[in-house]
Amino acid sequence: MAYCGAMTKVSASILSADFSRLGAEMKMLEASGSDWAHVDVMDGMFVPNITIGPSVIKAIRKCTSIPFDVHLMIQRPERYVTDFIKAGADYLTVHPEAEGDPLGAMGKISDAGAKAGISINPETDMKVLDKYLDKADLVLIMTVHPGFGGQSFIPSGVEKIRYVRKWADEHNPKLEISVDGGINRSTGAECVRAGATVLAAGSALFGLADMSPEIRMWQGFGPDP
Ligand code: DX5
Ligand code: ZN
After folding, report:
1. E-assigned strands of the chain?
2. 119-168, pLDDT tens digit by residue?
3. DSSP string, 55-111
4. When you count CB atoms within 10 A of the terminal residue's CB, does the N or C end of the chain come out lower?
5. Could you say which DSSP state residue 119 is in?
């Protein structure tokens, strides 16, 4: 495959971090070798949960230099992408299922010099991705229903990974393909075999006393030859 040789990236999802000591948690995940930090932004409208906004991202940006992979589970993302980029987001993914103008939001993200991503829910047909793929630096495939950590992996995401991998091999081998939800060493290895390049995971990493050996193991996963 075109991307052979690249190591799998790990994006530790801070939704499972101890929010009372978030600065220390950011330093810990960087020291543990996480390639990116996955930051879940929820508005209580697109999903039934509310998490964090730009001011928290601005605060934790001072604690670490690793890229922030900001997953916007919000309606009308075009209203907020500029604020999140100013706060320190590097990758920003929006949902096609969101109200408003997700495609326009991706244009704003790219125009601002950040990396644009599209994130798709488990029940959404993968064909919906078609009109976003050539605008994307990152595709994030959800393998749980967005809103909460600690849910079980929904296997239908694997077919979506293969679909996007095929498109990327033909059109943009640098496209990052991330998978998010219920990722552990076994589901993570399966997703990388199907073509994922980034594993986003919360509970499987933050539940460990030391996440570094687990991260190293996942980084060694490779695609099917
Ligand atoms: C869920 C979030 C995920 C969440 C994953 O809506 O998008 O990023 O943190 O958590 P785990 O790894 O526990 O499934
Ligand atoms: Zn997420």
Report:
1. 9-13, 36-42, 68-73, 91-94, 115-120, 138-142, 176-180, 198-201
2. 999 999 999 999 999 999 999 999 999 999 999 999 999 999 999 999 99
3. HHHHHHHTT--SPEEEEEE-SSGGGTHHHHHHHT-SEEEE-TTSSS-HHHHHHHHHH
4. C
5. E
Report whether residue 157 contacts ligand 1, using a CB cutoff of 6 Å: no
Choice from 10, 14, 15 to test ligand 1 binding pocket (greatest atom count within 8 A of CB): 15
Residue with tokens 């922030």: 68
Mean pLDDT of 173-184: 98
Q: Which atom of ligand 1 is least distant from the CA of 181?
A: 14
Structure tokens at 40: 């879940």
* Token couple for 208: 């460990």
List own/partner pairs for 109-118 with CB under 8 A and 24 or more apart: 109/81, 109/85, 110/135, 110/137, 112/81, 112/82, 112/85, 113/85, 114/81, 114/85, 114/89, 114/90, 115/90, 115/91, 116/91, 116/92, 117/69, 117/91, 117/92, 117/93, 117/176, 117/178, 118/93, 118/94
The residue-averaged pLDDT of 182-207 equals: 98
222 lines ligand 1 (CB under 6 A): no
For residue 3, the model assigns a pLDDT of 46
Q: Report pTM.
A: 0.97
